[in-house]
Amino acid sequence: MHSAPAVTYPVGRCHIQTYLTLALWALGAVVCALWIRDAGRIGWPQGLAMLLGLLTGALALRSLVMTPEGSLRWDGQQWIWQTCRDSLSGTARPTLDLKRWVVLEFRPQAGRPTWLWVARANEPTYWDALRRALWSRVSRAAAAVDHADGLPDAGRGHA
User: Fold this and answer.
1) CA 150/CA 30 separation, integer angstroms
2) H or E segment at 131?
3) Count of domains in the chain?
4) What digits encode the pLDDT tens for the residues 122-158?
C-alpha cells in the first residue's frame, strides 16, 4: 500500500466558518426578537433569552478571534500541527468535507484535540494533495489505531 505524498498546508480563519457562526447567532437573535414582539412585553424569560443571546454572541466572537493559525503537514507517516509556539504530531480526521472546505479534528499524541477549518482558498495548488492525504488509507488506519479507545469509528465517505 502506498501512502499519500507529503504536503504542508496553511490553516487560518476560514470565511465559511465566520459566515456560519455569525448566521447561526443572528438566527438566534431574530428568533428571540420575534418572541419578544409576540409576547408584547419583556418578562424574565425574554430577559434571560436576551442575556443568553448576548453570552452566545460573545462566545461566538471569542471562537472566531481564537481560531487556530498555523500549518498542517503530512510527512507520509504522520500529521504535524505547527503553530508559532508548538509543533505537535498526531492524527487528522476529517469530520465534514464540503469539497472546498474541510472541518477536521487534529488529535495530538498528548493534549486536547483542536478543530480546524481548512479552506481551498488558502493554497489551491496543494488542496488536492491535502485531501488525498486526509482520506488516504494510511491516514485513516493511523487514526483508527490512535482512537482505539473503545469508541466506534464513524463511517466515512470517499473523496
Assistant:
1) 42
2) helix 127-135
3) 2
4) 999 999 999 999 988 645 555 565 556 555 544 444 4
